[in-house]
Amino acid sequence: MRKDVRILLVGEPKVGKTSLIMSLVSEEFPQVVPYRAEEITIPADVTPERVPTHIVDYSEAEQTDEQLSSEISKANVICIVYAVNNKKSIEKVSLAIVLEVLVPVILVGNKSDLVEHSSMETILPVMNQYTEIETCVECSAKNLKNISELFYYAQKAVLHPTGPLYCPEEKQMKPACIKALTRIFKVSDLDNDGILNDNELNFFQRTCFNAPLVSQALEDVKNVVRKNMIDGVCDNGLTLKGFLFLHTLFIQRGRHETTWTVLRRFGYDDDLELHQDYLFPLTLKVPPDCTTELNHNAYLFLQSVFDKHDKDRDCALSPEELKDLFDVFPYMPWGPDVNNTVCTNDEGWITYQGYLSQWTLTTYLDVQRCLEYLGYLGYSIISEQESQAVAITVTRDKKIDLQKKQTQRSVFRCNVFGDSGSGKSGFLQAFLGRNLTRQNTVSEEHMSYYAISTAYVYGQEKYLLLHEVFPDFDVLSDTDLACDIVCLVYDASNPHSFEYCARVFKQYFMDTKTPCMMIAAKSDLQEAKQLYALTPLEFCRKHKMPPPQAFTCNTADAPCKDIYTKLTTMAMHPHVTQADLKSSTFWLRVSAGATVFAVLGFAMYRVLLKQR
Question: Are the C-beta atoms of residues 364 and 413 closer than 8 Å to each other?
Fold first, then answer.
């Protein structure tokens, strides 16, 4: 909402501009009227809209055309005053409007105490000719008639303008207004059944106006819609058509403030665009060496969004369901590459786990984008929070985790290095449960350099984010190097493949505290002797790394995930000694915990699904 209102009064000499201002201030008709009143400011606490209001008088006798132009440029509403008893001043109203102002205009017919008839018939053609005109008010400075109303309407024209909402010629709301209200309806339709039931209407009313509707008031609203629209009410709930009809009715009856209150509560600015402060709250600050994650309440909200769009209850979003979910966005945020970044079902549809994983990835990589997306979904409104920034947890500095030898983080990044053809992409896709056969169906055009899913460590569910680093040894960026664990992949069947991994490790990671793991990919093929001074096992022993882990995605079923559990464990516990990493008991505890909790997690999800 605007911080202040600046009202400029213009008109022919002796129409009573100055008298109107002085009558408002003193609440009596002035006996002596100067050529021009000084600018006055009405404090916010004495105005109905709680907004500071500045009232500026213009006098042709005292001011120049340049000064008039200057005042017009500063004003956000112009009151063109004419005398209802002076036909010439009425005729000159249209000439005054040709100033080509880009702000709302109020026509003010003063001196109504001097005539017994209204000037509305004469002024109506002028109002129809200029869409800038918000309304016309007849008043009397002498009798104090409609003085307060005049300035209230001027305020209202600034704070709740008709122009962006409604087209008088076509007698219907403008497309931008319909689009905004449609999004508001969809966000408020908590069960996505296409109607607002009594509970949803009450929540909407409380959200926008801080007061619920009593049962009779709800019925009265629905009855108004029923009388005017065939399909405005369905199953005793308000349809989208009924919702839009109500707002059209509010606007037509001069209650623009009702529609504007709703629009602004849901984040819209004066141009019916979502406000930048709404989409990108300034309260979130992320220090260096800290990461961003979704908190528990955010995951609950996203789960409810998934549930309301998973119409067939198959725990996956079909292309139609996904499109419906993102219908409240101005664009489709997820491209085809997302299907190769997270888990999907056999039909290639994003599963419940994949859906949450993609949100986790966005939060980690680009928290501002995540805030924007949550804003489109109406997180702060549905969760009744000040902003969507409360959905984000900023983790503590990684150096503190290392000092305390424990972490509270839930998302761990693993950067995957390896020469071209070493099997990096296959390693990423295998994490999503895809064997070589399924991977071969993936289009090169829609390949992703990220893969994210869950792993269980000591019974705790964590997210492991794999990032495939482009194999250009000389141009590794800080982003390529910043991670919780490094994965070095070589093709066990290619004698030249290991050398790349050794060079990357020695140049970039040998002197860091970042844990590293060597992966011997394509282990189903004949192993070749690596043309390097040390064998991979000797290299790992020398640099106190775990022994190379054999891996293949050329399996009949989904590839084994034990290796990803090991990576997550090492990322969580970078302080763990080499002796522990070699211990079979250590890895047995990890994998046993993962198996038990994976089974329990699946069982719990089936129970929740039945409850839904």
Answer: yes
